[in-house]
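User: Predict the full complex structure for these chains.
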Amino acid sequence: MSDGLAQFSRGARMSVPVVVASAPFAVLFGALAVDNGFTVAEATLMSATIFGGASQLVGIELFGQHVAPWLVVLSIFAVNFRHVLYSAAIGPHIAHWPWLQQAVAYFFLTDPQYAEAERIREQGRKIGFAWYMGMALTLYVCWVVESGLGALFGKLIPNPHALGLDFLLPIYFLGIVMSFRNRPRWLPIVIASAAASMIAYKTVGSPWHVSLGALAGVLLAAALPVRESKPVEASA
Amino acid sequence: MSTTVWIILAGAVATYLTRVGGHLVLSRFQRLHPRVEAGLNAVPAAVLTTLVAPATLTAGPSELAALAVAAIVALRGGMMTMFLAGAATLIVLRHFIG
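Assistant: Here is the predicted structure of the two-chain assembly.
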Protein backbone atom coordinates (compact mmCIF):
# COMPACT_ATOMS: atom_id res chain seq x y z
CA MET A 1 0.00 0.00 0.00
CA SER A 2 2.80 2.41 0.88
CA ASP A 3 4.30 1.63 -2.51
CA GLY A 4 0.99 2.57 -4.11
CA LEU A 5 1.01 5.78 -2.13
CA ALA A 6 4.56 6.58 -3.25
CA GLN A 7 3.57 5.95 -6.86
CA PHE A 8 0.47 8.08 -6.43
CA SER A 9 2.47 11.03 -5.13
CA ARG A 10 5.07 10.54 -7.85
CA GLY A 11 2.26 10.91 -10.39
CA ALA A 12 0.97 13.95 -8.55
CA ARG A 13 4.43 15.55 -8.66
CA MET A 14 4.77 14.89 -12.40
CA SER A 15 1.55 16.81 -12.96
CA VAL A 16 2.93 20.07 -11.55
CA PRO A 17 4.19 21.63 -14.82
CA VAL A 18 0.89 20.74 -16.45
CA VAL A 19 -1.11 22.20 -13.59
CA VAL A 20 0.88 25.44 -13.89
CA ALA A 21 0.53 25.51 -17.68
CA SER A 22 -3.16 24.65 -17.80
CA ALA A 23 -4.34 26.81 -14.89
CA PRO A 24 -4.66 29.93 -17.07
CA PHE A 25 -6.75 27.96 -19.55
CA ALA A 26 -9.03 26.65 -16.83
CA VAL A 27 -9.57 30.18 -15.53
CA LEU A 28 -9.93 31.51 -19.07
CA PHE A 29 -12.44 28.79 -19.89
CA GLY A 30 -14.52 29.58 -16.79
CA ALA A 31 -14.52 33.30 -17.53
CA LEU A 32 -15.39 32.83 -21.22
CA ALA A 33 -18.08 30.25 -20.47
CA VAL A 34 -19.95 32.71 -18.24
CA ASP A 35 -19.34 35.37 -20.86
CA ASN A 36 -21.00 33.12 -23.46
CA GLY A 37 -24.11 32.48 -21.41
CA PHE A 38 -23.19 29.54 -19.15
CA THR A 39 -23.95 29.66 -15.45
CA VAL A 40 -21.08 29.08 -13.00
CA ALA A 41 -22.52 25.62 -12.28
CA GLU A 42 -22.71 24.73 -15.98
CA ALA A 43 -19.13 25.86 -16.58
CA THR A 44 -17.96 23.71 -13.68
CA LEU A 45 -20.09 20.76 -14.87
CA MET A 46 -18.52 20.98 -18.32
CA SER A 47 -15.00 20.83 -16.85
CA ALA A 48 -15.98 17.96 -14.57
CA THR A 49 -17.60 15.79 -17.26
CA ILE A 50 -15.59 16.56 -20.42
CA PHE A 51 -12.17 17.38 -18.91
CA GLY A 52 -10.64 18.48 -22.20
CA GLY A 53 -9.53 22.10 -22.40
CA ALA A 54 -9.39 22.72 -26.14
CA SER A 55 -12.74 21.05 -26.79
CA GLN A 56 -14.39 22.98 -23.96
CA LEU A 57 -13.12 26.29 -25.34
CA VAL A 58 -14.34 25.41 -28.83
CA GLY A 59 -17.67 24.28 -27.37
CA ILE A 60 -18.43 27.50 -25.51
CA GLU A 61 -17.23 29.55 -28.48
CA LEU A 62 -19.78 27.87 -30.75
CA PHE A 63 -22.44 27.96 -28.04
CA GLY A 64 -21.93 31.72 -27.82
CA GLN A 65 -22.49 31.94 -31.58
CA HIS A 66 -25.86 30.19 -31.13
CA VAL A 67 -25.14 27.39 -33.59
CA ALA A 68 -27.27 24.23 -33.46
CA PRO A 69 -26.66 22.10 -30.34
CA TRP A 70 -25.73 18.99 -32.35
CA LEU A 71 -23.04 21.00 -34.12
CA VAL A 72 -21.56 22.06 -30.79
CA VAL A 73 -21.43 18.42 -29.70
CA LEU A 74 -19.95 17.35 -33.05
CA SER A 75 -17.20 19.96 -32.75
CA ILE A 76 -16.34 18.77 -29.24
CA PHE A 77 -16.13 15.27 -30.69
CA ALA A 78 -13.90 16.48 -33.55
CA VAL A 79 -11.47 18.29 -31.25
CA ASN A 80 -11.27 15.25 -29.00
CA PHE A 81 -11.01 12.72 -31.82
CA ARG A 82 -7.23 12.58 -31.33
CA HIS A 83 -7.88 10.63 -28.11
CA VAL A 84 -8.82 7.62 -30.24
CA LEU A 85 -5.16 7.43 -31.19
CA TYR A 86 -3.97 7.81 -27.58
CA SER A 87 -6.42 5.16 -26.50
CA ALA A 88 -5.24 2.74 -29.16
CA ALA A 89 -1.59 3.38 -28.30
CA ILE A 90 -1.89 3.12 -24.53
CA GLY A 91 -4.53 0.38 -24.43
CA PRO A 92 -2.23 -2.66 -24.74
CA HIS A 93 -0.08 -1.36 -21.87
CA ILE A 94 -2.91 -1.14 -19.35
CA ALA A 95 -4.95 -4.07 -20.66
CA HIS A 96 -3.81 -6.19 -17.69
CA TRP A 97 -5.52 -3.84 -15.19
CA PRO A 98 -8.96 -4.84 -13.84
CA TRP A 99 -11.60 -3.59 -16.29
CA LEU A 100 -13.07 -1.06 -13.87
CA GLN A 101 -9.64 0.56 -13.43
CA GLN A 102 -9.30 0.68 -17.21
CA ALA A 103 -12.77 2.22 -17.60
CA VAL A 104 -11.86 4.89 -15.04
CA ALA A 105 -8.43 5.49 -16.56
CA TYR A 106 -9.83 6.16 -20.04
CA PHE A 107 -11.99 8.97 -18.65
CA PHE A 108 -8.79 10.75 -17.56
CA LEU A 109 -6.81 10.15 -20.79
CA THR A 110 -5.88 13.76 -21.58
CA ASP A 111 -2.99 15.03 -23.75
CA PRO A 112 -0.48 15.41 -20.87
CA GLN A 113 -1.64 12.19 -19.22
CA TYR A 114 -0.99 10.30 -22.43
CA ALA A 115 2.32 12.06 -23.03
CA GLU A 116 3.70 11.24 -19.58
CA ALA A 117 2.45 7.65 -19.82
CA GLU A 118 4.30 7.34 -23.14
CA ARG A 119 7.47 8.72 -21.56
CA ILE A 120 7.25 6.17 -18.74
CA ARG A 121 6.82 3.40 -21.28
CA GLU A 122 9.74 4.74 -23.30
CA GLN A 123 11.95 4.47 -20.23
CA GLY A 124 11.05 0.78 -20.18
CA ARG A 125 8.91 1.02 -17.04
CA LYS A 126 5.37 -0.21 -16.44
CA ILE A 127 2.39 2.14 -16.28
CA GLY A 128 0.85 1.62 -12.84
CA PHE A 129 -2.69 2.51 -11.82
CA ALA A 130 -1.54 4.37 -8.67
CA TRP A 131 0.91 6.52 -10.63
CA TYR A 132 -1.69 7.11 -13.34
CA MET A 133 -4.37 8.25 -10.91
CA GLY A 134 -1.92 10.38 -8.93
CA MET A 135 -1.32 12.44 -12.01
CA ALA A 136 -4.90 12.25 -13.30
CA LEU A 137 -6.69 13.23 -10.10
CA THR A 138 -4.34 16.14 -9.40
CA LEU A 139 -4.93 17.48 -12.90
CA TYR A 140 -8.66 16.84 -12.65
CA VAL A 141 -9.27 18.48 -9.27
CA CYS A 142 -7.17 21.53 -10.22
CA TRP A 143 -8.88 21.81 -13.60
CA VAL A 144 -12.42 21.67 -12.18
CA VAL A 145 -11.73 23.99 -9.24
CA GLU A 146 -9.88 26.53 -11.41
CA SER A 147 -12.66 26.52 -14.00
CA GLY A 148 -15.16 27.25 -11.25
CA LEU A 149 -12.97 30.05 -9.90
CA GLY A 150 -12.55 31.43 -13.42
CA ALA A 151 -16.32 31.46 -13.87
CA LEU A 152 -16.74 33.25 -10.54
CA PHE A 153 -13.91 35.75 -10.71
CA GLY A 154 -12.66 35.64 -14.32
CA LYS A 155 -13.11 39.30 -15.03
CA LEU A 156 -10.73 40.31 -12.26
CA ILE A 157 -7.44 39.22 -13.93
CA PRO A 158 -5.77 42.57 -14.76
CA ASN A 159 -3.57 41.72 -17.75
CA PRO A 160 -3.39 38.05 -18.76
CA HIS A 161 -1.37 38.91 -21.88
CA ALA A 162 1.57 40.40 -19.93
CA LEU A 163 1.77 37.19 -17.89
CA GLY A 164 1.96 35.15 -21.10
CA LEU A 165 -1.04 33.10 -19.99
CA ASP A 166 -2.40 32.57 -23.47
CA PHE A 167 0.79 31.00 -24.83
CA LEU A 168 1.90 28.62 -22.07
CA LEU A 169 0.27 25.51 -23.49
CA PRO A 170 2.03 25.64 -26.89
CA ILE A 171 5.34 25.92 -25.00
CA TYR A 172 4.43 22.93 -22.87
CA PHE A 173 3.31 20.84 -25.86
CA LEU A 174 6.50 21.74 -27.73
CA GLY A 175 8.49 20.34 -24.80
CA ILE A 176 6.64 17.05 -25.07
CA VAL A 177 7.18 16.89 -28.84
CA MET A 178 10.91 17.44 -28.24
CA SER A 179 11.02 14.64 -25.67
CA PHE A 180 10.03 12.16 -28.40
CA ARG A 181 12.94 13.17 -30.65
CA ASN A 182 14.78 9.83 -30.35
CA ARG A 183 11.92 7.89 -31.88
CA PRO A 184 12.22 6.51 -35.42
CA ARG A 185 11.27 9.03 -38.15
CA TRP A 186 10.62 11.77 -35.57
CA LEU A 187 11.68 14.68 -37.77
CA PRO A 188 9.75 13.76 -40.95
CA ILE A 189 6.65 13.04 -38.85
CA VAL A 190 6.87 16.37 -37.04
CA ILE A 191 7.44 18.26 -40.29
CA ALA A 192 4.51 16.53 -42.01
CA SER A 193 2.15 17.14 -39.10
CA ALA A 194 3.28 20.73 -38.66
CA ALA A 195 2.81 21.55 -42.35
CA ALA A 196 -0.54 19.75 -42.63
CA SER A 197 -1.94 21.27 -39.45
CA MET A 198 -0.95 24.79 -40.51
CA ILE A 199 -2.48 24.35 -43.97
CA ALA A 200 -5.65 22.85 -42.46
CA TYR A 201 -5.81 25.67 -39.93
CA LYS A 202 -5.70 28.22 -42.76
CA THR A 203 -8.12 26.39 -45.06
CA VAL A 204 -10.56 24.04 -43.31
CA GLY A 205 -10.19 25.87 -40.03
CA SER A 206 -10.13 24.92 -36.37
CA PRO A 207 -10.72 22.34 -34.87
CA TRP A 208 -10.03 20.08 -37.89
CA HIS A 209 -6.36 21.05 -38.07
CA VAL A 210 -5.71 18.74 -35.12
CA SER A 211 -7.15 15.59 -36.69
CA LEU A 212 -5.90 16.36 -40.22
CA GLY A 213 -2.40 17.34 -39.08
CA ALA A 214 -2.06 14.24 -36.93
CA LEU A 215 -3.36 12.06 -39.73
CA ALA A 216 -0.63 13.37 -42.06
CA GLY A 217 2.15 12.43 -39.65
CA VAL A 218 0.66 9.02 -38.85
CA LEU A 219 0.07 8.15 -42.53
CA LEU A 220 3.62 9.19 -43.38
CA ALA A 221 5.00 6.96 -40.63
CA ALA A 222 2.89 4.05 -41.87
CA ALA A 223 3.83 4.65 -45.52
CA LEU A 224 7.60 4.85 -45.03
CA PRO A 225 9.44 1.53 -45.53
CA VAL A 226 9.14 -0.60 -42.40
CA ARG A 227 12.46 -0.64 -40.65
CA GLU A 228 13.54 -3.84 -38.96
CA SER A 229 14.07 -3.37 -35.26
CA LYS A 230 17.62 -4.61 -34.98
CA PRO A 231 19.78 -4.56 -31.86
CA VAL A 232 21.63 -1.27 -32.03
CA GLU A 233 25.44 -1.27 -31.96
CA ALA A 234 25.57 -4.85 -30.77
CA SER A 235 29.17 -5.20 -31.97
CA ALA A 236 30.42 -1.82 -30.76
CA MET B 1 -32.76 20.16 -17.77
CA SER B 2 -31.65 23.09 -19.90
CA THR B 3 -30.30 22.73 -23.43
CA THR B 4 -26.91 23.78 -22.11
CA VAL B 5 -26.75 20.83 -19.73
CA TRP B 6 -27.78 18.44 -22.52
CA ILE B 7 -25.02 19.81 -24.76
CA ILE B 8 -22.50 19.36 -21.96
CA LEU B 9 -23.58 15.78 -21.20
CA ALA B 10 -23.68 14.77 -24.87
CA GLY B 11 -20.22 16.33 -25.30
CA ALA B 12 -19.01 14.35 -22.29
CA VAL B 13 -20.30 11.05 -23.69
CA ALA B 14 -18.75 11.83 -27.10
CA THR B 15 -15.44 12.63 -25.40
CA TYR B 16 -15.44 9.44 -23.35
CA LEU B 17 -16.11 7.44 -26.51
CA THR B 18 -13.00 8.92 -28.14
CA ARG B 19 -10.93 8.06 -25.05
CA VAL B 20 -12.08 4.46 -24.74
CA GLY B 21 -12.84 3.82 -28.42
CA GLY B 22 -9.35 3.48 -29.83
CA HIS B 23 -8.56 0.64 -27.46
CA LEU B 24 -11.92 -1.11 -27.85
CA VAL B 25 -11.61 -1.16 -31.63
CA LEU B 26 -7.93 -2.09 -31.89
CA SER B 27 -7.96 -4.73 -29.15
CA ARG B 28 -10.11 -6.85 -31.49
CA PHE B 29 -7.07 -7.50 -33.59
CA GLN B 30 -4.73 -10.23 -32.39
CA ARG B 31 -1.60 -9.01 -34.12
CA LEU B 32 -0.90 -5.54 -35.47
CA HIS B 33 0.51 -5.02 -38.94
CA PRO B 34 3.99 -3.41 -38.75
CA ARG B 35 2.70 -0.39 -40.64
CA VAL B 36 -0.17 0.05 -38.19
CA GLU B 37 2.34 -0.21 -35.39
CA ALA B 38 4.62 2.36 -37.05
CA GLY B 39 1.62 4.65 -37.43
CA LEU B 40 0.60 4.25 -33.79
CA ASN B 41 4.17 4.88 -32.72
CA ALA B 42 4.02 8.22 -34.55
CA VAL B 43 0.81 9.31 -32.82
CA PRO B 44 2.19 11.31 -29.88
CA ALA B 45 4.62 13.43 -31.90
CA ALA B 46 2.09 13.89 -34.72
CA VAL B 47 -0.83 14.99 -32.54
CA LEU B 48 1.10 17.19 -30.17
CA THR B 49 2.80 18.93 -33.09
CA THR B 50 -0.62 20.05 -34.33
CA LEU B 51 -1.20 21.78 -30.99
CA VAL B 52 2.01 23.81 -31.45
CA ALA B 53 2.52 24.51 -35.17
CA PRO B 54 -0.67 26.51 -35.93
CA ALA B 55 0.03 28.69 -32.89
CA THR B 56 3.15 29.97 -34.69
CA LEU B 57 0.96 31.35 -37.50
CA THR B 58 -0.49 34.03 -35.26
CA ALA B 59 2.58 34.38 -33.02
CA GLY B 60 4.64 37.55 -32.80
CA PRO B 61 8.42 37.79 -32.20
CA SER B 62 8.05 37.29 -28.43
CA GLU B 63 6.10 34.06 -28.84
CA LEU B 64 8.42 32.69 -31.55
CA ALA B 65 11.48 33.51 -29.43
CA ALA B 66 9.89 31.76 -26.44
CA LEU B 67 9.29 28.61 -28.51
CA ALA B 68 12.84 28.73 -29.90
CA VAL B 69 14.37 29.07 -26.44
CA ALA B 70 12.16 26.28 -25.11
CA ALA B 71 13.15 23.98 -28.00
CA ILE B 72 16.87 24.60 -27.45
CA VAL B 73 16.66 24.15 -23.68
CA ALA B 74 14.66 20.93 -24.24
CA LEU B 75 17.72 19.43 -25.97
CA ARG B 76 19.58 19.51 -22.66
CA GLY B 77 17.30 20.21 -19.74
CA GLY B 78 14.22 18.48 -18.35
CA MET B 79 10.58 19.30 -18.85
CA MET B 80 10.30 21.85 -16.05
CA THR B 81 13.53 23.69 -17.02
CA MET B 82 12.35 23.89 -20.60
CA PHE B 83 8.95 25.18 -19.58
CA LEU B 84 10.26 27.83 -17.20
CA ALA B 85 12.85 29.03 -19.73
CA GLY B 86 10.16 29.42 -22.40
CA ALA B 87 7.72 31.16 -20.07
CA ALA B 88 10.40 33.54 -18.73
CA THR B 89 11.47 34.45 -22.27
CA LEU B 90 7.87 35.14 -23.20
CA ILE B 91 7.12 37.35 -20.18
CA VAL B 92 10.35 39.36 -20.47
CA LEU B 93 10.02 39.95 -24.22
CA ARG B 94 6.35 40.85 -23.99
CA HIS B 95 7.29 43.37 -21.33
CA PHE B 96 9.85 45.06 -23.58
CA ILE B 97 8.61 44.60 -27.15
CA GLY B 98 4.97 43.64 -26.58
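Residues 2-166 of chain A form one domain.
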